[in-house]
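> example.struct
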């Protein structure tokens, strides 16, 4: 016999459920976020219980642009190590949505640019490098 990690009452052997380090009554097995009874898989982290959807919201990958989590089975864009919601996959400068087939570029920090703004950014960086090189020249 053990005490339930949730309600702190004694659990009989026939209703004991173990999730990670938690010992629970079957009736106490609920998501700590949405309070729904667990059906199928459940997840635990930091002593909390989560249904699959809420675990994914809390600890799953996040959009590089808006930093919000993705929904389960949501279509996303991936660029190297960066992930984006479809509606966040847009030029950092003009916010035009970058769709399949469009040419675009990224900064070293993962920010997206449509082709014209990427070319403009490259020219600005090149001009700054040329200016710096000129300043450091010994004569």
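> example.seq
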């Amino acid at each position: 016999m053990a005490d339930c990690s949730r309600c702190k009452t004694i659990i009989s052997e026939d209703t004991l459920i173990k999730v990670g380090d938690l010992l629970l009554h079957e009736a106490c097995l609920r998501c700590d976020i949405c309070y729904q009874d667990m059906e199928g898989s459940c997840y635990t982290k930091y002593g909390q219980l989560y249904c699959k959807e809420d675990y994914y919201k809390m600890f799953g990958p996040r959009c590089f642009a808006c930093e919000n989590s993705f929904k389960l089975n949501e279509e996303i864009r991936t660029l190297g190590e960066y992930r984006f919601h479809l509606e966040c996959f847009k030029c950092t400068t003009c916010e035009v949505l970058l769709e399949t087939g469009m040419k675009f570029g990224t900064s070293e920090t993962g920010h997206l640019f449509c082709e014209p703004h990427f070319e403009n950014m490259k020219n600005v960086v090149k001009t700054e490098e040329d200016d710096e090189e000129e300043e450091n020249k010994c004569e």
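> remarks
The beta strands are 2-3, 10-11, 16-19, 22-25, 43-45, 48-50, 76-79, 82-85, 104-106, 112-114.
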